[in-house]
Write a structure and sequence with these properties.
The chain has 4 helices and no strands. It has about 80 residues and is an all-alpha fold.
């Protein structure tokens, strides 16, 4: 019963990493190229972005697969 949650956890960590790096990249471009101010890297921002992205994708993934996880696999496959 842990396997579905493990796969969602792996996907959420990957999505959180992409979200955090994307947010930092956009922040850098906006600060340096658009606003012409200095960009100061903050490691906590990367960690918070990773956690926020992971939690958001985890919530959406579990919400979307809730009906599938509550029935036996054989019943789900019969419906397909």
């Amino acid at each position: 019963m842990i396997a579905p949650y493990a796969s969602v956890a792996i996907i959420t960590v990957a999505a959180g990493t992409v979200a955090a790096i994307g947010a930092l990249t956009i922040g850098y471009v906006l600060a340096e190229r658009v606003l012409h101010t200095g960009f100061h890297f903050n490691g906590w921002l990367l960690i918070l972005g990773l956690l926020a992205g992971s939690l958001g994708v985890s919530f959406a993934g579990l919400l979307g697969t809730r009906s599938v996880l509550q029935v036996p696999p054989s019943q789900t496959l019969r419906q397909v």
